[in-house]
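I had to read the description of the data format several times before I understood it. Each protein is reduced to its one-letter sequence and a matching series of backbone shape codes. The format is easy to grasp once an entry is in front of the reader. For illustration, here is how one protein appears when written out as sequence plus structure tokens:
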Amino acid sequence: MLSNKNVQHVWKTTKFDIVVTEQFNSDCSLGLAHHLKLPVIGLASHALMPWHYSRFGVSFNPSYVSHMFLSGGTKPKLYERIERVLFDSYLRLIYKFYCQRIDQNTLAQYFDDIPPLEELGRNIKFQLVYSYFVHFGSSLYPQNVIEVGGYHVQKPKKLPDDIRKFIEESQHGVIYISFGSMLRSATTPREKIETIISALRELPQRFIWKWEEDSLPGNPSNIYLSKWLPQNDILNVILETDKLECVVVSKWKGEEMCQKSAKWKSVISAHFSGRHPNVLAFYSHCGLLGTSEALYHGVPMLAMPIFGDQPGNAAAVEESGLGVKIEFMELTKKELLEKFKQILNPEFRAKVKILSQAWKDRPISGIDAAIHWTEFAARYPNFTYRSAAADVPLYQYLGLDILLILFGIPLLIIVLFLRYIFNKKKTNSTSKNKHKSKKE
């Protein structure tokens, strides 16, 4: 990017107020922002990365702070806590001594006197984190770490006619299946796909599945396949009650209401807030954006994490009550059917709907919060908003100096005292031996 002549022309000839840059695995853009003398807003489509904690002065205690790359959530077992400490330390070292060195050397080719990137990272005005406490639980974030989870969710658009028809004609509802854009269903081991299909055949629901091939093994008739699907629109497909002959409302008792009166329209509107009652669940790899869409629209999830931040997201899904988790490597037909039965339970779905309402019930939306604090930093660029914890040395953060004084000095006194006693006894013993030798 820095070597591109067009990009160079833009930053040299255009006046900017602020730099908004992704905070993932590179700090190269921080050097450009420093060169332009502009305040920086960090933006992430995920929770905090391991190296962000010290940068923003956020406490990372493996006993209760969820790790985005690992399972265990906020209640990890002993081996999970050990795993967190080792893995987190490894990632921080790799980032500091490999990633940042590459970025620092790259910046040195274009700019003079770029400070250490870790120092520039601590000067980020605000970090916008794609999380919210309703989903991930309460966190001890300083004031310059702002939760903006769900800011990407947009109002649903009208679905293509064939997808809408497939949903509305589903007598027992529809389950949406997607494993994201990076994890391709077609490259998943065939035995796992056959296990999933075998379980789906035993369910009365229909399925909409993002699949990169033209067919599935066995070509099940209850599955709609597509290489691309409007996920947000499916999870919140607009209910057109005037076109429905029968609506299955399964929130409370699952009874069929085959009436088109204003009474039933109001019931549907109150219970589902526009979401089609036939969209029952979301079977997903648990990417954070898709998870946020399911939470926003009140759709229960079956989370099957594979890699990256998905294990941490799945742990949050389970702890918050949005859904249940199933392990990909331990996938069986029996367990899959049990998990589907759990999330399709009307009581479970009712709780997810309440969770969705709590997610949306904010004094300010995620996108509005992101806009406000970005403009705030541009208006007051000379203020420092970081927590004092970001400047505390590691030995002070761990309290090593205090431990040294409280335990080290008393221990030293005890050691010196014991040594004195030992030497005194040794001296007395030597004196007695000499005295005895003289007598002989």
Summary: The chain has two domains: 5-151+366-385, 161-360. The chain has 17 helices and twelve strands. Residues 400-439 form the longest helix (40 residues).
